[in-house]
Amino acid sequence: MDSLDTMAETFKLLGDKSRLTILGLLKERELCVCNLVDIMQMSQPSISQHLRKMKAGGLVNEYRRGKWVYYSLSLEDKPYVKDVLESIPSQAEKLEWLDQQLATTVCD
What is the pLDDT of residues 94-104, one digit of tens each? Predict the structure, then answer.
């Protein structure tokens, strides 16, 4: 079980709308940084900064596939975050939009 200090830091991470949106998207499936840039309409450095903070906070995993970095949720030891994510509105519509875009483009 996380300490109160760790939990407080985690809830600070969850207090940002962009990070909460990213976590909601990752709740649906793993995504590449370029996918998140497209969906969020934010710069790659900004998305990467949010992901770096969430990785440091133990909320996401990353792995490299070719030149792209993919992210997925890492919440096995944070059941209280899983509870919060259950309350986040579905991000499926954003992912459907992404899938339509991917039919015509590829990350480059």
Answer: 999 988 887 65
Mean pLDDT over 77-94 rounds to 92
Strands (E), the chain: 31-32, 60-65, 68-73
pLDDT at 100: 87
This model's pTM is above 0.85? yes
Instruction: State the pLDDT at residue 2.
Output: 79
- Give the pair of three-digit tokens for residue 108: 């480059």
User: What are the backbone angles phi and psi of residue 55, rounded to the nearest 5°?
Assistant: -65, -45
44 CA to centre of own chain = 13
The 10 Å CB-count burial string (b at 16+, else e) for 10-38 is beebbeeeebebbbbbbbeebbebbbbbb
Q: How far apart are CA 68 and CA 18, in angstroms?
A: 21
Q: Looking at the chain, how many residues does it have?
A: 108
